[in-house]
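Hi R.,

Here are the chain sequences for the assembly we discussed:
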Amino acid sequence: MTLIHCIYASAASRPIAERELQAILERSRVNNAGLDITGMLLHVEGSFFQVLEGPAERVAALFDRISQDERHEGVVEIIREPLPRRAFGQWSMGFVSARPPEVLAAIGGNDFFGARSCLEGLDAGRAKKLLTAFARGRWRRQSGSAVAGA
Amino acid sequence: MAARPLIEGTVLAGGLPAFSYAFQPIISASTRTIHAYEALVRGPAGEGAGSVLAGLDADRVNVLDRVGRPLAIAQAARLGLPCLLHLNCQPHSLADQPQDMAPTLAAARAHGIALERLVFEATEDQAIRDHDAFAKTVNGYRALGIKIAIDDFGAGYSGLNLLAHFQPDIVKLDLDLVRGIASHGPRQAIVQAIVNACFDLGIEVIAEGIEGIEEYRWLTGVGVELFQGYLFGRPGFESLPGASFPGEAATP
Ligand SMILES: Cc1cc2nc3c(=O)[nH]c(=O)nc-3n(C[C@H](O)[C@H](O)[C@H](O)COP(=O)(O)O)c2cc1C
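And here is the predicted structure of the full complex:
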């Protein structure tokens, strides 16, 4: 089956507690591992950015399920396309919650979060470019009024 | 992949004039390195592309396109290609006839050039009416790791609306958009819009045909990172020439 990634952005429906995020992640890691899905979730100031990679149909089904989740809103699919190889192959769901400069530093090769971060050593490719755009304010969703930042 | 006759044999069988390749650097403004070379068709003694293509009908241009790419790959490999290689593709050989690509893929394997180092450049022209079908085929190459660049972006049929159907890895700005941009408001507005859309979608932008430092400065100012043109280096016949990097415009 074709390997694809689906990358989207969304906004937390209401301020989300650290504990709640951890609960989402724990479920995600268990579910994704069973589905052969890998990826990462980035949380920046109430906005989400997620990369889901894996077999096309499973990614599509999971993305549909996630889109229905009422803990976030304004879900916008940015890209869905075939991939030669996974960018987050070792991560059933990598997670980073940080401020934009820290995200940019980590993507830029500064091992800001240490070698155990899913942003470490990321291939130059679509996921990395979109992460950069997101960290620079594009696609940043705000609860209620969702706009791609300038 | 089906085995193909030797390149030379195919050339003769296609009734083509003799031809070879020149390679022009594409540079990265921020790292000041050569990011890629584009293979450009030339006559056997380095004559311009026009001398080879003149008088060829569409069918023979397709044949040249098909048998030429493996030759360009072989030459680049022999010259010790250290970076990416851009190859021109008739949109029609890309979209309608995947088998036209088989010799190209085979040549890359035979010469040890990873598919991740190939960039297929296609012009999105009138010939492609069905964007979604084009996207589907082209995404098949992308699944192999080959990058796709849309040439002459912003001209004719190839505009921002294309990106609603298909998000290539790279777009090359149309020459006419870039010419004299430092002092031309409408071109600045259009290029700014293209650069913004590409940034939002994770698409790289290459500005080609750059001859003047003013164009280069304006384009680096809006975030364009990859450049091709006489300002940096002319095509080198059967060679991978070095490049020069404009001093003052170095990005930190
Ligand atoms: C921002 C966000 C990202 C999510 N990512 C995933 C994910 O990668 N995998 C997953 O299974 N669920 C994810 N979820 C949770 C799903 O929406 C859904 O609650 C969960 O899959 C249900 O799993 P369960 O049936 O095992 O309880 C995410 C939810 C949110 C709000």
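The longest helix of chain A spans residues 18-35. Chain A has four helices and five strands.

Let me know if anything looks off.

Best,
T.
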